[in-house]
């Protein structure tokens, strides 16, 4: 976590700089089927974050050495657009995006019924168009909706959410200032129906009690976001477009 | 190896062309619906989203402070690049920028640059020391044909709505980027033996060469590009040039309308 110091992140009345309560998440909207070229897609706005996910496949796995005899491989690319951050990012992969791509793939492989598609590949492309903290979680949520939109069987959805700590207080869903100047960040990928966790990272400093509270907030938020995900898919398929 | 699907598709496109028809029922000079949205991305100093049929493109403008080139001490710079990432379609693969994406970025870049809509002198802060570098990045998210027009439109719309982040860099107050003109691109693809406006993905797959024309506000040419294998006649160019004039006026009006809101 960045420099914890002089920046005041909580107001005297206990609310946060953007007026949210400690256990309140930023507004989330999701739309499914936004990219006609893809087999499945979703766009999510989460606070000021904007991300899209596209799914292609299942398709033949190339090159052959990546094939698995008993299951599909999930090939995830998480990428930030050059204009998605305050300072322009040079196009191309970096260590951060490679790591996020990998752990996202690991998480998605835990929910997709990969054994249904041996020797094939499912491509998941996550593009961050505007970043305001929490993009890896936003990407996971978008990817889950895009996978469902592509008709790929999953044993549950997966919801990306994060809690953290600012000024010794556990808060849900860090915004940019809280992420930069806070004390901890706990992003997770939660399976809303089974209550399992398929994605977990953390950095900073949390006591066991603070961890428990942060996780409680995460589960609460996952439930809320899950409803928005389901609603997006229902809106997409109620018109009979499928 | 003969690719079976394009061979059959080409036959079908040629048959349709004989009756002056297109696969999706459009007229030869008829575009799919074009929608434009600006100021849609936090963090980009200018941004635009363009949807043409099933093609979806975003453009974002960023600024950086840099030292001017020694031979042009009072001029800032403009750069426009396009990324055709794997998100855009099944046919796109990860890797370094493809020749295709470089061509795309450069054609859009030339149209904007050569129209003179950005006065490079206006990007100077301290001669010889500090100038603005303006970067337009184009992100293609869904390619269902005619990404060139979508990219050209997104780029100029993002640029026209950009705000120079002077306060963040401690060099004065934020102000609107000065843009004198709205260069617009119109693209034509040879399908079934004749040129059509705004080719779809299928038409591109079973079609031949393409011609991109960028016109300024006065109808002057600022950038031309012929892409892919094929030849055309001056008479053919004259015909599409007339259509391009109309098309550019329409899209320019769309930009004005969106800006006015």
Classification by helices and strands of chain A: alpha+beta
Instruction: Note poorly predicted spans of chain A.
Output: none
> What sort of overall outline of chain A do the alpha carbons produce when their principal axes are compared?
globular
Q: Which two chains have the most extensive interface, and how many residues on each?
A: A-B, 32 and 35 residues
State the strand order across the main sheet of chain A. 1-2-3-5-4
Which keywords apply here?
heterodimer; A: 242 residues; alpha+beta; 5-stranded mixed beta sheet; 5-stranded antiparallel beta sheet; 28% helix; B: alpha+beta; 30% helix; 29% strand; elongated
Ordered list of secondary-structure elements with their pairings:
The complex is a heterodimer of chains A (242) and B (261).
Chain A: E1 28-32, E2 40-46, E3 49-60, E4 73-80, H1 95-109, E5 120-130, H2 135-149, E6 159-166, E7 169-172, H3 176-181, E8 184-190, E9 197-200, E10 203-204, H4 208-238
Parallel strand pairs in A: 4-5
Antiparallel strand pairs in A: 1-2, 2-3, 3-5, 6-7, 6-8, 8-9, 8-10
Helix pairs in contact in A: 1-2, 2-4
Chain B: H1 4-18, E1 34-38, E2 46-52, E3 55-66, E4 77-83, H2 99-114, E5 124-126, E6 130-142, H3 147-160, E7 163-164, E8 175-176, E9 184-191, E10 194-197, H4 201-205, E11 210-215, E12 221-227, H5 234-260
Parallel strand pairs in B: 4-6
Antiparallel strand pairs in B: 1-2, 2-3, 3-6, 5-6, 7-8, 9-10, 9-11, 11-12
Helix pairs in contact in B: 2-3
């Amino acid at each position: 976590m960045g420099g914890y110091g002089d920046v005041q992140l909580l107001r005297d009345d206990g609310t946060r700089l953007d007026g949210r309560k400690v256990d309140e998440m930023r507004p989330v909207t999701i739309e499914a089927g936004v990219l006609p070229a893809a087999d499945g897609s979703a766009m999510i706005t989460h606070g000021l974050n904007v991300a899209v996910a596209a799914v292609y496949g299942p398709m033949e796995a190339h090159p052959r050495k990546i094939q698995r005899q008993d299951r599909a491989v999930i090939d995830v690319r998480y990428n930030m657009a050059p204009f998605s951050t305050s300072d322009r990012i040079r196009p191309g992969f970096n260590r951060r995006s490679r790591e996020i791509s990998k752990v996202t793939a690991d998480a998605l492989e835990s929910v997709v019924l990969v054994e249904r598609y041996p020797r094939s590949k499912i491509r998941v492309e996550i593009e961050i168009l505007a970043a305001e903290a929490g993009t890896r979680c936003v990407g996971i949520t978008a990817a889950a909706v895009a996978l469902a939109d592509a008709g790929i069987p999953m044993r549950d959805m997966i919801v990306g959410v994060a809690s953290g700590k600012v000024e010794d207080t556990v808060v849900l869903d860090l915004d940019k200032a809280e992420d930069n100047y806070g004390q901890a960040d706990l992003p997770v990928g939660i399976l809303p129906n089974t209550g399992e966790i398929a994605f977990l990272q953390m950095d900073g400093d949390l006591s066991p009690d603070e961890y428990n509270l942060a996780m409680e907030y995460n589960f609460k938020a996952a439930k809320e976001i899950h409803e928005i995900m389901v609603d997006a898919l229902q809106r997409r398929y109620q018109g009979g477009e499928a | 190896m003969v690719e079976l699907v394009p061979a059959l598709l080409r036959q079908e496109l040629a048959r349709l062309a004989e009756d002056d028809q297109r696969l999706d029922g459009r007229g030869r000079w008829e575009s799919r619906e074009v929608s434009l949205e600006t100021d849609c991305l936090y963090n980009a100093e200018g941004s635009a989203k363009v949807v043409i049929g099933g093609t979806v493109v975003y453009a974002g403008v960023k600024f950086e402070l840099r030292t001017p080139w020694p031979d042009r001490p009072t001029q800032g710079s403009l750069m426009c690049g396009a990324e055709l990432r794997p998100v855009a379609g099944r046919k796109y693969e990860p890797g370094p920028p493809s020749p295709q994406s470089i061509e795309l970025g450069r054609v859009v870049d030339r149209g904007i640059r050569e129209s003179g809509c950005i006065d490079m002198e206006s990007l100077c802060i301290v001669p010889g020391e500090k100038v603005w570098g303006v970067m337009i990045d184009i992100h293609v998210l869904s390619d269902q044909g005619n990404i060139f027009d979508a990219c050209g439109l997104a780029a100029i719309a993002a640029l026209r709505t950009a705000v120079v982040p002077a306060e963040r860099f401690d060099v004065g107050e934020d102000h609107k980027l000065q843009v004198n003109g709205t260069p617009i691109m119109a693209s034509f693809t040879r399908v079934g033996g004749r040129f059509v406006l705004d080719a779809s993905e299928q038409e591109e797959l079973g079609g031949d060469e393409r011609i991109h024309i960028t016109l300024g506000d006065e109808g002057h040419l600022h950038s031309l590009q012929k892409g892919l294998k094929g030849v055309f006649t001056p008479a053919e160019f004259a015909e599409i040039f007339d259509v391009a004039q109309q098309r550019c006026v329409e899209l320019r009006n769309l930009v004005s309308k969106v800006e006015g809101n």
